[in-house]
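Project standup — Tuesday

K.O.: blocked on the structure for the chain from last sprint. Re-posting the sequence here as requested.
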Amino acid sequence: MTGLLATLIYLPALFLSVETEISWSANSESDLAGYKIYYGKASRNYDQVIDVGKQPGYSITLTETNVTYYFAVTAYDSSGNESAFSEEVEAIIEGQVDPDPDPDPDPQPDPTGIDEKVYNFPNPFIAGQQETHIRYSLQEASPVTIEIFNVNNELVRTLENETEKSAGTHTETIWNGQTESGENVPHGIYYGRIMTANKIRIIKIAVLR
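H.V.: unblocked you, prediction finished:
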């Protein structure tokens, strides 16, 4: 089985939970009976399993912040035979707003993608008067997408769209607190979604006016 994807879908009550949409490439075997999603808080050590039938996707609600969740999928046939785990993907919901994190010293990057210390600085910042930098590190070159959402699940701004980024620490992506049309956003909490090929990070951004 290949092509496992994880997409975070924001809920209006994002302070309490985040819905994670897991999807994968469907199997073509005629005796396919269904799929199972395995997930947990340790890589390849899953303590939760959901039988989702034949649908090649499912939504799971995550309720803890600052915790990395790991996901994998298996397929099973009508005789009860189950495949090996798919490629693993992971997601983390960053729940802490740091008033002004210091980017130094630089932590070592996670060897599988984005490192654990992903944040924006300064935080909070004033829309239209200041800029906040999105800070992350990559072990190897990868396309990166960075988007800003409000608490109503509305896309506010796309900062990077499948932009090829080199290995190393990056702080060049900035947000000035404005929408795509150049209007200052209302003050409040926003969420930055940083995605590479196999990782997703969510950071909480506080905007002042």
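K.O.: great, moving the ticket to review. The chain has two domains: 5-92, 96-208. Confidence is low (pLDDT under 50) at residues 5-16, 96-112.
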